[in-house]
Design goal:
6-stranded parallel β-sheet, Immunoglobulin-like, alpha/beta, single chain, 32% helix, 773 residues, disordered N terminus
Amino acid sequence: MRTLALDDNPGHTVKHLFFGSGVRRGSAPGGLGVRRDTIHSRLGAGTMSTARRRVVERLRGTAALLAVTTTLVLAGATGAVASPSPTPTPTPAEPTLVLAPLAHGVVAAGAALTSTIEVSNPTSTDLAPTSLTVELSDSPLTTSPELDEWIDNGELATEASVIDRPAVPAIVAGDSEIVVSTVAVEALAGRTPGVYALSATYGGDVVSRSAIVLQGDTPTAAAIGVIVAVTAGPQTDGLLSAEDLTTLTGTDGRLTDILAGVAGTSAILAVDPALLASIRVLGDSAPASALAWLDRLAALPNERFALQFGDADVSVQADAGLTTLLEPTSLDYAMSEDDFANATPTPSPNPSATADAQPEEGGDTDTDTVTLPDLDELLAVPGARAAMYWPAQGRADANAVNVLAQQPSATGSPATTLLSSAETERSEARAAASSAEGAPLLVYEAGSSSAIRATAAATEGSTQARSALISAQIALEASSPSGPLLVTTERMAEVSATSLRAAIDTVFSYPGVVPTTLSALLSAEPAGAQSAAQPDEEAATRLDTLLAGETSIAEFSSIIDDPSLLTAPERSDLLQLIGAGWRDEPNAWQAALTAHAEATTTTLTSVAIQEPSTVQLVSPEAVLPFFVRNDLPFAANVVLVSTPDNLRLDVERTLTVRAEPGVNTRVEVPVRARVGSGEVTIELRLLSPTFEQVGPVQRAQVTVRAEWERIGIIGLGAIIVLLLGAGFIRTIRRRRRTRAAESVDGPTIDQGTTEENTAREPEPDRPVDRRDE
C-alpha cells in the first residue's frame, strides 16, 4: 500500500491499493483529493441556469455515491490487509553436538583422553570455521545423583578447567563434521582416580555433556549380573495377534533385536510368558518368524526367569489388597483344533465298542480327537527359575514385598523380589542379595540400569556417547562392593540389537568386572535392606476398577454355554493392562483403560430386550411379541421375566429364551385380559441362569379392553338375535292366521283345472289379428 498526494489538492492524500491484476487504481470521483469548486468558479455564484444547476446536482449526487462506495471498499480492503492470517514462525534450527569419549569413557592410568565430537549443521546457512572448548571438572563426582544432575541440568558442584580447543572447519548447511579431541596425560595430571564431568561447547551456547572415568593402577574387582527384559511392551489385548508377532519377530522386530542383543553374552533373561503363549496358541498357523524366534529363545544358554503374564505389575496387585497374584484362567478361547492337525491324536474312549463291531452306514469312523496343549504348556518358559517377581520400576512397598514373599512356590521357599536401589534403604554394604525381615530381595543399581536402558534405545551414532555414562555409573556404584551386583535394562520402550549389545558389552568390559549368574546372585550372603517405596494408590484404584469390570463379566458370562469364552479373555486383557511397561506412559495407560471400560460396557449390553412399542389389546387372549437382541458371537440362554403393574392382565411371568448370535430373537408372551380396562405397564427384564440381570429393564405399554366389555357385546348380540327371532315367529303366525281365515270362506279350488276359475281370470292382452276381421 502506498500513500500518494494529489497535485491539485496537496492538502489531502488518498490510499491506493494494488490488486492482483497489477492495475493501480486511482482516486474515485468525489473522494478525497477531488476538487469540487471547478463548476462554481466558471459559472459564478447565483448565475447558473436551472439546467446547469440540475447537471451540477446530478454530478454532486453521483460523486457522493461514488465517494461512499469507494470509502466502504477501501475500508474493507484496508481491514483485510491490516489483519492477515497469522503465519507460524518456524523454530530456527541450531547446531548440535554429540560428545563421545572413546573406550566407553574409561581412561586407563597413564593414558591420554580421546573423544570424538560430532558437530551437525541442520540450519540453512553455512557455519564459519571456529573452535570447540573442551572442559573437565577439577574434582571427581561422588554419587550417582550428582552425575545425573550434571547430565540432565549441567549443574556441577566443582570447578572445571579447559583442557582442549580443537578446531572446527566450516560446515555447509545440512552437513556435519567429526572433530577428534586428544588430551595429553599431562593435562590430566593432578586428578585422582574417579568420575569426572566432561563437556564440549560450540559457539558459546551449544553444549554436550558427558563423563569419563580416570582409572587407578589397580581397578576394583566386581561381579555384576545383567538382567534383560524380554517383553513386547505395553499391550491391551491378552494375546498378541499373528500380525503383531510377524512384526515383532521379523528382521527388524523388537523381539528379534532383543535376542540378537543378548546372544553370546551372560545376560539373564526376564521373559514374559504371554509372548510364548501367543505363538503356541496359533499352532500350525503361527508365523514362521515367530516359531523360529521361539526356537532361538529355547536354544539360548542364558539363565532366565518368568515374569507375570503380560509382565503384569505384581506390586500394584498387592497394593490393591490381593494376597494371591492374578493368573490367566484359560487360553482355550484362542485355540482351534484345525491349527493342531499335526498334533498326535488321542483315541476317544468308547467302552461299548467291541472288536467285531462295524460302523454304521454313513457314520464317522474316525474316533480320534486332537489334544490341545493345556495352560501350563502354553505358559512354560524353558529353563526358567520359579518364584521371582519384578515389580514395575522396581517399586514395591514393605507390604507388597511381604505379600510377594508368601506366594506359593514349587520349592516351598519364599519368593524373591527385585527392587531398585532408588526405592530401597540398605546398609553401607552394597550388594544385590538382600533381605527385608526374611523376605529375599535382589536390589539392582538404579543409576547403571537407567544408563543401560538409555544406551539400548540409542541410535547407532550415539551409542558410544551413551555407553560412557554406563561406565561412569558403574565406577560410582561398584567402588566398594560387598557382594555381587546387579543391573538391569529396566522395561525398554525402544531397543536396538546393536545398542543393546553395546550396553551389555560396556558393563562386562569395564575394568575389574566379571559376569555373574542368577544362581550366584541368589546364593550370595544377603545384606540388610528394606523397601522405601510408598503404595501406589492411584494404580491400585485402577486395578480395583478393572477387577469390578471382570466381576461383572463373570456374572454376565453365565448366559452362554461356555462362560470361559468371556471370562478367560477378560482376565488375559486385565493382566496386560496392568503391565509394568504402562507405568512409563501414564497418558497412554489412561486411554487404554478408558477404551477397555467402554468395551466392557459394550459386552455387558450386548444382550438386551429391544425397546417395545405400545400394544392395543383388542381380544381377551393374545400373545405379545418382544425381541431379544444378541450381539455376541455365542448363543445366549436367558429368562424373560414379565411383570404387569396391575391386575388387568394375566401375563406369563417367565419364559426361557435361547437367543441366537447376531440376530434379534422373537419371544411371544401369552396374556389374558381380566375385568377392567385401562393402561397396563409390563416390566420386562432378562435374567441369566444364575439370576443376574442382563441388559437394561424395558417397559411395554398395553391398552386393555376389559372383560365386562366383552360380556356387554355378547349380551347385545343376544338381544339382537332374540328380536330377530321374535319377528320371524310373528311373521309365521300372521301367515297361519291368514290361511285359517281363507279356509273358513270355502275350499280352495285348483286354478289350473276348473273352467270357472279360468273364466274368472282376466285374459291377458294379446295383439289383434287383422285377418280375423
